[in-house]
Amino acid sequence: MISRFYICRMKKAGILGGGQLGRMLLQVAANYPVETYVMENDENCPAAHLCDHFVKGDITRFDDVYQFGKGLDAITIEIESVNEEALCKLEQEGVKVYPSPAALKIIKNKIVQKQFYKDNEIPTSDFVITQNLLELQLQQNFLPAVHKVGMGGYDGRGVQIIRTREDMEKGFDAPSVLEKMVNIKKEIAVIVAVNDKRETAVYPSVDMLFDQRLNLLEYQISPADLPEKVLWKVEAVAMKVVKNLNSAGIFAVELFVDINDNVFVNETAPRVHNSGHHTIEANYCSQFDMLWRVMLGYPLGSTAHILPAAIVNLVGAEGFSGPAHYEGLPEILQLENIFVHIYGKKETRPGRKMGHITIISKEKQELIHQANRIKQTVRVVCRQ
Asked: Of 199, 79, 82, 272, which Cα lies nearest the Cα of 69?
């Protein structure tokens, strides 16, 4: 008699990159039947001790990525600067790649990404492409604008605000996109999950408030405070971006709402994203849990809020470089509904992302109050 019971082979899944996003993905992976692999060039990276198998390698090198991915069932990224040619070959050989190499190729180059929005009639700010500083100097009538280097920018690096002719020397002497500045009322993010059947799940939108000096997300509140008609536009535009990328995975679409309630796409990230970190505590299915569901072929989870949430990013304080020390944590941990996430980076430096703190509450004013309290209390420094 043939038994109805059989052993199902545990899937093998890899993550290219071992930073905080890989770390948070692995914290969720422990709940699933999956054997995890991480590749990074530093064996002391935040994700290294949480995976089943760590491989030291360069995520930008074809051979390293290809050899890492052979034999895996699925592979994902935690940063865009990976070798997509190797991912293409792995995909051709049957490895599931999230996002698809084709989608990654569009997004990782800001020039190509911006052209993608234009070609697909997705609302975005006006732009011109500059190949060098000389070409930038010819665009004085286009100011004020934002100059973004085509390749390699990340976490605020590779972005310069060009308001006047004198600012042009701050621009990039490399292929870049010059975007007309939008009169912004709100900066919004929407995270969308897509599975292999192209079914989607949309998370509630997020209000993002940036540190203009560092060009890093300072804190955020979800759900965003938007009129219903504007919210519909935001979600419709985000869905149009994801639909046209034609790829499974997790996508964070960042948008501007201007003073006339027009909606423009700013950028898209083809991976789990800082704007979705609150979902760990605030939503029934976090963005990290959702990506594992997509990669392992399980049904999409619920994106509904349990409670509204705010997040404060913990970044290295000015004037401190060295072994990280977190001032003010004991005081903050006395508060209710506070959740601390330290990323496991041993060294701090000014502006470096070192962790985040999530607050959940029914009251928006309480979220704002506690977020400001955390910003004033917690500092990432080093012992002198």
From this structure: 82
**Where does CATH 3.30.470.20 sit in the chain?**
184-382
Q: Which of 136, 159, 383, 138 is nearest to 254 (CA)?
A: 159
- Supply the mean pLDDT for the chain: 94
Q: What's the CATH class of domain 11-98?
A: alpha beta
Which residues have C-beta within 8 Å of that of residue 369, sequence separation ≥ 6?
none
Number of H helices, E strands in the chain: 11, 21
> How does residue 3 score in pLDDT terms, banded at 50, 70 and 90?
very low
The Cβ-side half-sphere exposure at 64, using a 13 Å CA radius, reads 17
Tell whether the model's pLDDT for residue 6 goes beyond 60: no
Tell me the C-alpha distance between 27 and 276, whole Å. 15
Residue 43 confidence (pLDDT) above 80: yes
Alpha-carbon distance of 289 to 307, in angstroms, equals 18
Distances (CA, A) of 277 to 120, 237, 244: 29, 22, 25
The model's pLDDT over 201-249, given as tens digits with 9 standing for 90+, comes to 999 999 998 766 655 566 799 999 999 999 999 999 999 999 999 999 9
Query: 0.85 exceeded by the pTM?
Result: yes
Which regions of the chain carry the CATH code 3.30.1490.20? 126-180
Please check whether the domain covering 184-382 is classified as CATH 1.10.1040.10.
no
Q: Please count the other Cβ atoms lying within 10 Å of the Cβ belonging to residue 365.
A: 8
Q: For the domain 126-180, what is the CATH code? A: 3.30.1490.20
CB count, 10 Å around CB of 211? 14
Q: What are 340's two structure tokens?
A: 């601390």
